[in-house]
Amino acid sequence: QPLKKKQCRIAGEEEFMRMMESGASPELLADQEAALAAVQASGKLLKLFSDGVRSDAEVARAAGKQNGAAVRFAGDCVRSNKDLILEIIRHHNDGANILPVMQSISEELRADPEVVREALKKDGVALQYASKELRANRDIVLEAVKQNGHALIYASKEFCSDKEVVIEAVKTSQQALAHSCQELRADQEVVMQAVKHNASCFLVADKVFRRDKGVVLEVVKQHGFLLEFARNSLNDDKDVVLEAVKNQGKALQYASARMRSQRDVVLAAVRSDVLAFQYAGDDLRGDKEFLFNDVKDIMMTFKFATEELRADKDTVLTAMRDYGKGLLWASQELRADKEVVQAAVQDSGHAIAYACEKLQGDSDIVLAAVKKDGRALRYVKGELVSDKTIVLEAMKSTPSALQFACASLRSDKDFVLLASRLCGKGYQGVSECYQEADKTVRDSISWTEFLCVSQCTLGVQGQTAPILSVALTRSRGRKDDDGISPGRTAFEGEVTLMSGAMFTCTMPDSPSRDSNGALRFHPLVKDFAKALLEELKKHTEAEEVAQIFIIFTVGADEVATPVTAWDLNRPLTEFLR
Prior knowledge:
Layout: H1 8-11, H2 13-23, H3 26-29, H4 32-41, H5 51-54, H6 57-66, H7 76-79, H8 82-91, H9 95-104, H10 107-110, H11 113-122, H12 132-135, H13 138-147, H14 163-170, H15 174-179, H16 182-185, H17 188-197, H18 213-222, H19 238-247, H20 263-272, H21 282-285, H22 288-295, H23 298-301, H24 307-310, H25 313-322, H26 338-347, H27 363-372, H28 388-397, H29 407-410, H30 413-422, H31 426-436, H32 439-444, H33 447-455, E1 471-473, E2 489-492, E3 494-499, E4 502-507, E5 512-513, E6 519-520, H34 525-539, E7 547-552, E8 561-567, H35 572-576
Parallel strand pairs: 4-7
Antiparallel strand pairs: 1-2, 3-4, 5-6, 7-8
Helix pairs in contact: 4-6, 6-8, 8-11, 11-13, 13-14, 14-17, 17-18, 18-19, 19-20, 25-26, 26-27, 27-28, 28-30, 30-31, 30-33, 31-33
């Protein structure tokens, strides 16, 4: 019954075979209907059934169509059945199925031209299973090598010297030329046909063609690196070298010294692969005009400029303005030059890593570097890692730069809180500050408290100072003492001065509703309300504030409406109720 339902597809071939071998009854293994269901799922299951079933034409046909390799398990009468084998061969379109079929059929069918020709249409390599007489038949061999040149290996030896056969073979197989006779490997027509279809044939052709410009040109158009094997000064021939570097720029390394100093040749190579510049002649790698005006890609080529050019201040200054990290390749003297280093760090803060140790402790250089990339703080030397101004500037661009500050700053709770307020990176920035703070700070203040306190800054209308925003989080992953984790934002609020003394606070995420439909607020809303009230009292006169509206959106399909208005004269507890 499982076979009839084709459950062997679900079980998998190997698992199903183990099940059949261990528990199938003789009656089941002799059941033609069960066998048909099995081989339609996996042809190789044919081997499990009785001789009578494996000799059944219908079962064998289904098995062979599902998997050509299953034919070898069929009975002798099936493997000698020409019509059935032809039907299986015509069903498949790939050598993976055709070759096992040809390997399994009877000797009589291997000598049948119709069967062999049908197989060769799908895969010429099937010639290997044809009879000796058919492998010596020129028409059969020609059909085979036209489909797959590799079939020449299985043809009778005399065809290795047959020019027409070899020409057809080399069009589809590099190995065919290697199996042809020496005379044909030195034949101009044969070799040209071979390299037109596969440049790698150049390596097995007679070495005389390594001095033949026509052949070499054809080869390097397809595979520039084969210029390495050209002889008779063809690597000094401009036509040949240009074709090679257009195909693969780094083929320039195999050109002659004269060619590697030709501007048009080097430019062609660089356009193909900018890293080919490293193989240019010293005169071009030391030519400032060529580097900046012709090549232009300073990022990839500056390190390959000559030592003299990388020691020239004007050149290096120009390069640093476009590629600060190129300071790594400047001379030692210029890496100690403040003007050069200043230009480098203004492009890439990371460039300070390549400055001399003295300049890594220079306040001007360090400030410029950390403004560009806060992570540059890791390369700062001396006392500047304790400088609050420097560290704060670093954290404005990269809050996690706190990890590179000195231990005293990372354990200073007030400084860490100040930095988290000023970094201007919102929730993510505060999270990074908290994570990089010293353990003593994290032990003294929970994540929730840190988040609320660090975000309580108020802006004034018309200014760009931080505005009051308190992020409240829901539990997920590691929890702090309040049962809240810093993993995910549940509520985020922003307070902005709308008009006069009116403030409006919106919280994007919805509170939930209880079973009675009443709103249920996160307990931290109370902390938010307190923080809001305290900040308002600091920056406004109480009598100027008439009301605070707290607006909640309850579900995406509902219109946000004020669900409560809070008069400042009413107790906070009454509002929260």
